[in-house]
Amino acid sequence: MKRFPRRLLAVFVTVTGMLLAGALPAFAATGTVQTAGDPLNVRRAPTTSSTIVGSVANGRTVTIDCQTQGISVTGPLGTTTLWDYVPALGGYISHAYVKTTPAGQVAPDCGVGTGSAECSTGVCAGEALFRSTDGHFLVYDRNADGKSAVVAYWLKGGVGPLYAWNSNGNGTSTDRATGVPSGGWVYYKVCVADYSTTPVLEACSNGITDYVA
Amino acid sequence: MAELNRRLVLLGGAAVASTAALPSWASARTTAAAPPIRDPFQLGVASGDPLPDSVVLWTRLAPAPLNPDGFGGMPDATYDVEWEIATDSAFASVAQRGTVATTRAQAHSVHVEPVGLEPGREYFYRFKAGGHISPVGRTLTAPAPGAAVSQLKFTFGSCQHWEEGWYHAYRGMAADRPDLVLFLGDYIYEKPSGRPAAERVRGLAVPAETTTLAIYRARHGQHKTDADLQAAHAVAPWLVAFDDHEVVNNWNSSGSPASASRKALAFQAFYEHMPIRSTAKPSGSTIQLYRQFVWGNLARFHMLDTRQYRSVQATDNNCSVMKDPARTITGTAQEQWLLKSFETHPSTWDFLGQQVFFAQRDADGSASTCESPDSWNGYEGSRKRITKGWVDRGVPNPVVLTGDVHRHWAADLRQDYFDHSDPIVGSELVTTSITSNPGTGGPPDATWFSRNPHVKYNKNQRGYVRVTATQQQTRADFVVVSNALERDPAKVTLSTDVSFAIQAGRRGLQRL
């Protein structure tokens, strides 16, 4: 049995404390938008059926916080299911239009605490953005299907699902607070459902864990 | 600040250079390929399988524990995890420390088996990874072989369907601060609950049936996000057994309902999430889980595996099959191992920790009809051989501990249950479920009890059993939770419904 000298243990703990106090180091990547010349659509969520929230010019350098699997897209750089999350643009762009070195995964999987979004499967009737700055969900209803858009989410400690609803109809959005503290995680998926305290969820997205900044 | 930081890191490196076996922050920093991670200790810590000089310390790195890919949010890289075990909760007196590497191949789980600990001692342990420190766990080593031990307090539970209730029972176990916790099966369920919506208090993040390693991992991981379960794991070492639902309902030694490949997936995820020894690391579709633990001269635990080696269950309550002595619930090797162990008597009490109902239950009192083919009723040859085995070998005080049936039961054991004057040769304590809900329904009626006079108690309520064993008696408190569907602890009470005692050297349950 070895005993660690007390003095050195104290050093060990001190260093640990410093690491804990520091923010999570950033490890984003950069890429260059490459199109035939026209601007590239920026989507709220990583699918071509998601809302267009802006555009980015050919040749622009972008900072990619994270990457995620989404719908397959063919572009100048090939065919890929990879999508790049660029917070400065407010959403996702297909990696088929982004030149990086190396070509594929250059940033972490999404859920890095700078925000994320998912669509319900199919036509993206339900769409939701998790805003890491304050831990709110913005829930969008994008289809006149008679259903609500809803985020089902789970939290630390064993609680879930809780629900963030938008029952206001097609074309509307709601802003729902989660109350998750800074640094806390939320696992969520975006679905459609008839409003209920015990809903039957349909067309749910894959699910993703994100963090409050 | 930067200057100070660098100096301290170098100091740490120097420390390690002088003690080669020990890790350092410097070496952790050389894991350059491992990206930074958020607090990975979302599943808590656990310990288990205590020996006089060793106890298993467990955690799993999972900063995003519910991710459907089963990877817990960990990058596909090797991470160094430092551990330390101390004799005080402030870690002023560290007994041992070290570093282990963990990878995605093991879902970034960590099993440490320190040796050279002192017997019969309370310890505290914690882990560090990626600059984060885990919660602190409390654990104990077993007393030295033959050591005089005056008391052992342990709790046991089973059947914790995630959706069917809140884990108040574990809050009770943590408050009891026992020396040991036994878990007797159905830690996870392979499918979502079939109960009505009003009886499902929460949901599975990945609700699909556990047919892939990813889903098994996500299912286990979600359970360990529960704060009360984490507290119970952190309070004492556990002795864990599995039953059927860790794999699939009513599996057995054959390829149906669980194929060899499905068993392999389930066993891997089970090992990754339980504080069990490397001797239980699965090899494909086999896992070595039956094992023994001795608590000085007071108690011995035989942890059985009544699933993996059992003959295929009888269908249609077929008596000729259920009574066929050629069939087995333990397999031959485990049966021989258990009978051999009965030849020695190192302790006052022998507790058989196992899954399914041992005592006979027979509603019509007729030997020509049979029931409950998945329990020991369905393997009458095994039950007779093992019961006779402990009688013939003079096992001083045998007590069977059981889960599975979602109700509290207590029963005495006989070699012939139809002969109501046959001598009592042991007792069985059956714990209700932590949460799993059998629906409404009271105890059997007086006629039933008159046909099964060895059965002393039945209660359909969630809870656990708390046992206090001394050289003179084993006392069992059957703890019940007032309402497992209510989340608010302030609105839920835990109370002892009944207590039974078994006196050393005398057979049979006494209601206290």
Mind explaining what this structure looks like?
The complex is a heterodimer of chains A (213) and B (512). By secondary structure, chain A is mainly beta. Chain A is built from one helix and 16 strands. Chain A has two domains: 29-99, SH3 Domains (SH3 type barrels, Roll), CATH 2.30.30; 116-211, Immunoglobulin-like (Sandwich), CATH 2.60.40. The radius of gyration of chain A is 20 Å and the shape is globular. Chain B is globular and about 70 Å long. In chain B, 19% of the residues lie in helices and 25% in strands. Chain B has helices spanning 2-18, 25-29, 168-176, 213-223, 227-235, 260-273, 319-322, 332-341, 380-392, 446-451, and strands spanning 45-51, 54-60, 79-86, 94-102, 109-112, 122-129, 132-133, 137-140, 151-157, 180-183, 238-240, 291-295, 299-303, 349-353, 398-402, 408-413, 426-430, 455-459, 463-470, 473-481, 494-503, 510-511. At the A-B interface, helix 1, strand 13 and strand 16 of A face helix 1, strand 4, strand 7 and helix 5 of B. Chain B: Residues 1-28 form the signal peptide. Chain B: This is Secreted alkaline phosphatase.
Keywords:
heterodimer; A: 213 residues; mainly beta; SH3 type barrels; Immunoglobulin-like; 2 domains; four-stranded antiparallel sheet; 1 helix; 16 strands; disordered N terminus; B: 512 residues; alpha+beta; Purple Acid Phosphatase, chain A, domain 2; 3 domains; seven-stranded mixed sheet; 10 helices; 22 strands; 19% helix; globular; PhoD-like_MPP (chain B); signal (chain B); TAT_signal (chain B)
